[in-house]
Design brief:
5 helices, single chain, mainly alpha, 63% helix
Length: 83
């Protein structure tokens, strides 16, 4: 799975170029991570994931997963400066 910096970069791309939606060409984990960060419930639903399922999938794919996924999401959102 991508690093936090890569997820931030992908979120910025999604916001600038794809109406805040992940690119369907990205890996499942990358799409889910970006959709979670950007609260893109439509994209999660299209991938047949709930937010909880997506969070577990993303966390499970991380080399050093955060112990608190909500805190990680808040950190990424703060870095983006959109929340």
């Amino acid at each position: 799975m991508s690093t936090t910096d890569d997820i931030v970069r992908r979120c910025r791309w999604a916001l600038a170029h794809n109406n805040g939606h992940p690119n369907g060409a990205w890996s499942t984990g990358e799409q889910l991570a970006v959709a979670l960060v950007l609260a893109d419930t439509a994209h999660l639903a299209a991938m047949d994931y709930t937010a909880s399922e997506a969070a577990r999938r993303v966390q499970g794919g991380m080399v050093s997963p955060p112990s608190n996924m909500r805190r990680w999401l808040a950190t990424v959102r703060a870095e983006l400066g959109v929340w």
